[in-house]
Design a protein that fits this description.
Blueprint: E1 2-3, E2 6-14, H1 15-28, E3 31-33, H2 41-44, H3 56-72, H4 81-86, E4 90-92, H5 94-101, H6 106-137, E5 156-164, H7 168-176, E6 181-188, E7 191-199, H8 203-211, E8 216-217, H9 227-255, H10 259-280, E9 283-284, E10 288-296, H11 300-308, E11 313-318, E12 330-331, H12 340-346, H13 357-372, H14 375-391, H15 397-416, H16 423-427, H17 433-445, H18 454-482, H19 486-511, H20 515-535, H21 542-554, H22 556-564, H23 567-591, H24 597-632, E13 654-656, H25 657-663
Parallel strand pairs: 4-13
Antiparallel strand pairs: 1-12, 2-10, 2-11, 3-10, 5-7, 5-8, 6-7, 9-10
Helix pairs in contact: 1-10, 3-6, 3-10, 6-9, 13-15, 13-23, 13-24, 14-15, 18-19, 18-22, 18-23, 19-20, 20-21, 23-24
Length: about 675
Amino acid sequence: MAVVKMKKFLIASHQSDAAVLLESLQGEGICQLLNSDQAMVTKEFPELTVSAKRPKEIEDLLGRLLKCISFLKNYAKPAAGLGSALAPLREIDRKTYDEIVSDEKFNESVEEVLSVGLGIENTLSKIENLNGSLAQLQLWKALQTPVEEISELENSTCLAGLLPSQKFEEIRGGLDEFDTAVELVAEADGKTACLIVCLNANLNEVQKLLRSVDFEAANFDAMHGTPAELIADYNKKLGEANEQLQNQLETAKYLSENLGRFEILYDHYNNLLTREQTRTQSAATEKVIVFEGWVKKHDYKRLEKIVAGFSASNLNGVTVGEDEQPPIEIENNAAVKPFETITRLHGMPNVGDVDPTAFLAPFFALFFGICLTDAAYGIIIMAFSWWLIKKFQGDKKAFWMLLICSIFTVVAGALTGGWFGDAFQSLIPQSSPAYGAINGVREKIMLFDPMKEPMTFFVISIGLGYVQIMFALFIGLFNNIIRKDYATAVFNFLVWIIFLNSLAVFGWSKYAQMPTVATIVGWLAVLGAVLIFLFTERKSGMAARFGSGFFSLFSTVFYFGDILSYVRLMALGMVTAGLGMAVNILVKLLMDIPYVGFILGALLFVGGHLLNLALSVLSSFVHSLRLQFVEFFPKFFTGGGEEFKPLALCNKYFLMKEKKAASE
């Protein structure tokens, strides 16, 4: 339940050992290696060189593998069901993995797939061009003249093209003024195919007139023969191209059976690329590479054991420099660990910060449950979360967190009487025995009804806000005591705790007419205000200290505003209940319809409450998150630490069975 202590190290490895050593380190995934810009060794020993050479061959191979995977996915049998989306990684054993990555002929397979892909692309382009040419030639099918002879005139020019049918006669009359002959070939779809023959002397005027009516010139370049002959030839070529495409598609479908092999190879070489990038970005001499990095202190023995397995490598611990900031990692017990999702979403603690995960966990789960306040919704979320945990591959912390929050939702819903809104009261006939039994149990469990006692809900929400704000100040107090920063502990936290609590008790004592208590806590509040005014800023001049003190006292308003923010717990809880009640009213109205009323009501009940559940879960998560990030964290948590990122295997497509068993 804390920020993990880090230890810095240096590994000196002979060039012959370095690649295999990195593979072992990556397999364990316990240490973060620094590049030359981050490492202190390159600053202390500038004579060390850094190749920074890109592993271009591996990058090119990964690019080709990615193209193969993208291509073969179009022809592979798609994975069926939601389960495949939740567990997309292919499980393989070590033997299968070794066989695939050691296959010396895989490059030939890559080139074969890329060749088939390029062939299909070219064939599709050819088919598209043939279809375009056929579409163009259809209107010219009746023309008996070979198309190459159209332009073979000496003193005149023949223009072949399409004119708008509604303007053809008008254009024909206009062309007569230039001693131009017009032959209509065919007409279809509002277009008229025609040949226009004019003297070369009149060509410019004729072209100008044709442009004014959107004349589309026909392109017969590289064509030989009559349109009918060309159509027959192109149809033949089109048939051959379609047959070729079919064969290529069958080949692609056959090759797609090897999609899994390509995905495994991609992951293998992607991990190799990471190792090579790490090696080439590390400081080195002609024969030795120096790896500088961080490891969790409790993992240092494991690191020693790994390096000891390489005779040409040596490990040494390093003293951390004054200006160095270690990367941050947090570790918590099983009950709190799921809520690390929230901390990581905000950002890692800074050096000297306390890990807030254990402190936010109960508040977040409680606030989530209060925002929903429906026991039936909580049971649905619980079942769904458990199913996701069983089916999902990878990090399941978010689903475990949702499961824990759903338990709080069930409790909060039962205590406020929420079961699908007011479904028990409104949909079960009150004259039936079932109503008395079910509603009797509901009322025995129920603590209060938010719809009838909103002020109770209001007081609970405000009270929880006050408790969490005070809790945050106490965390800051004890954290600074542990760090031996006693001035900050006293004047930035303890004084505020006394001051705010004195104000709260002063208000309560005035309301309860307890003058003695009011006098005592009133003087305590005054003392707290004076200390805040004088000692909030302790390192500046008198003017800056007074200015900072005045602003700090004014920020008391912000504390009250933060506490009032917790009213959103009540608001969201009542909105969830209100929407559920609205759905139940509509269901009851539908059930009065003869014959089909029960079916329509059941459909609306399921659909309406699922929609309310989805909206309420989203709102509950967002607003509970906001209360942690905006109201809770700023009181004691700085954040901004650099997350610990160890060199580790990163598989996008497959999961090693032995690794899975080890993690379980």
